[in-house]
Amino acid sequence: MASVHHIVRVSKVTKTFHLGKVKVQALKGVDLNIAAGHYISIMGPSGSGKSTLFNMIGGLDKPTTGKVFIDEVDIAQLDAYELAWLRCRKIGYIFQTFNLIQVMTALENVTLPMIFSGMHNDAATEKGIRLLKLVGLEDRFLHKPFELSGGQQQRVAVARALANDPAIILADEPTGNLDLSTGEEIIALLKLLSRERKVTVISATHDIKMLNVSDQVVWIRDGRIEKIDEREELSISVGRIGVRE
Amino acid sequence: MTDRYLLADPAKRTSGVNRQVVLPFKKSLEISFKQIRVRFFRSLITTMSLVLAVSFLSFASVSTDVVNGMLATGDPALRQALIHAGYDIEPDATNVGSSPKQRWIIILSLLVCVVGIVNAQLMAVTERFREIGTMKCLGALDRFVLRLFLLEAAMQGLTGAGAGAVIGAVFSLINATLIFGTVAVGNVSWAQVALSVILSAGAGCLLSLAGVFYPAVLAARMQPVEAMRIEQ
Ligand SMILES: Nc1ncnc2c1ncn2[C@@H]1O[C@H](COP(=O)(O)OP(=O)(O)OP(=O)(O)O)[C@@H](O)[C@H]1O
Ligand SMILES: [Mg+2]
Fold it and tell me: How many CB atoms lie within 10 A of CB A104?
């Protein structure tokens, strides 16, 4: 067990939100180790703290107490530059609402993180085209987000998340705004990436379809981890997906 | 679906934490320009108040230049025409400045203009919270966001103030010609007019930047989660 590389370690994390005088404890002590290259689903009812945990792991928000380690680096210790670098190079984010930049074309959206990382313009464009082909959008490079369907926008977002070859892809309900079959396509794509590129995929979701492809399912309820199911223990087979071995 | 990048060697991924993130100036310029172009109509309205205020400033300033040009001729008939037109000219004065009342009106119009710009830019920032949050998730630093907003304001300021200064000067010259005839334009010092136009345009650019500064700092300081939580 000692040889397993834990790309993400969450240690005794709590998060309390203050709404005026009312305190809401969204996370009540979460411990979680995620092995590199795994596909993890975080499941749980609405309001259970999935997005909050997602934001902690992604370095988008700070825990009230406890620590988050990415690659054994405590992210609370990072300064603004290092944090930006981490978001740029180590982690790729995918959101329920796609969050593409509306004034930019698909290709420009994908190349933006590469520009931030210091890549040369031509190299970034070339790689952007490759990534868009990879997600199946070879004829949509120059379209703006509003000219694309939801599924296509999410594909652009996946390509963008891959821009700097991140070690981790964080996806908060990536299929939440998509219909059944489009959602399955996105899940299949994520699974493929996780398998072929050894990217660690961490995905918060309500989507039962995700269970099939996950190496590990973390059930979270009311700010605590209820149980963690390993792949072998999973016996649920709702809507099998093609990429499953 | 197999691709060179798909099979990129995971071991080659950068490890450890570095701190190098960049946004080249040319790229910032490109993004800002795109933002203005996409929101062209809105930009136009934001710019319009600046055009008006600056053209007023330039009008007043060039009118003074015209009067001074006419006084410099030393022709008593012209001096008489000026006094007739309502200028307060001391018997032995060789030039005039703007009156205190005029200065007040100009300052007020510029203030109103700045308030308008702050208001418009605050709206623009609010509208773009999600975009700002997204950019930060992709690795943008606070100063990238700040720079984008400042560049946008500078471009708007440059066009708006430039256009306003020229419009104001042209109107002032036409106005003087209508009142005094071609002698007004014939005697004016063009160097002075050019200076007035440049100064007015410069003041306008500064105002535009001053107006965007607070909203832009607000935007740049946003934490990504806060920015993206806001529903749109
Ligand atoms: N910024 C915030 N301010 C106050 N309360 C918050 C904030 N963010 C989250 N919460 C609270 O924390 C709890 C967990 O929220 P979270 O968004 O993590 O849930 P979730 O599991 O992602 O739900 P969903 O599946 O609906 O997205 C909720 O009770 C929510 O009201
Ligand atoms: Mg959520």
Answer: 21
Q: Which ligand is nearest to the CA of A220?
A: 1
In the beta sheet, which residues pair with residue B91? none
Which of A50, A51, A60, A75 is the best residue to mutate to test the B interface, defined by the most B CB atoms within 10 Å of its own CB? A60
Asked if residues A203 and A188 have their Cβ atoms less than 8 Å apart, the reply is no
C-alpha distance from B208 to closest chain A C-alpha (Å): 23
A106-132: pLDDT as tens digits = 999 999 999 999 999 999 999 999 999
Measured CA to CA, the distance from residue A167 to residue B181 in angstroms comes to: 76
List, for residues A63-107, the tens digit of each pLDDT value.
999 999 999 899 999 999 999 999 999 999 999 899 999 999 999
Considering the entire predicted model, what is its pTM? 0.85
Alpha-carbon distance of A80 to B141, in angstroms, equals 7
Q: Which domains does chain A have, with CATH numbers?
A: 36-51+79-243 (3.40.50.300)
Residues with Cβ within 8 Å of residue A95, at least 6 apart in sequence: A157, A171, A172, A173, A174, B228
Contact A99 B16 (CB under 8 A): no
Chain B residues closer than 8 Å to A193 by CB: 6
What tokens were used for A103?
């004034």
Cα A61 to Cα B136: distance, rounded to the nearest angstrom = 12
Phi, psi for residue A68 in degrees, rounded to 5 = -120, 125
Instruction: Please tell me the distance from the alpha carbon of residue A45 to that of residue A219, in angstroms, as a whole number.
Output: 9
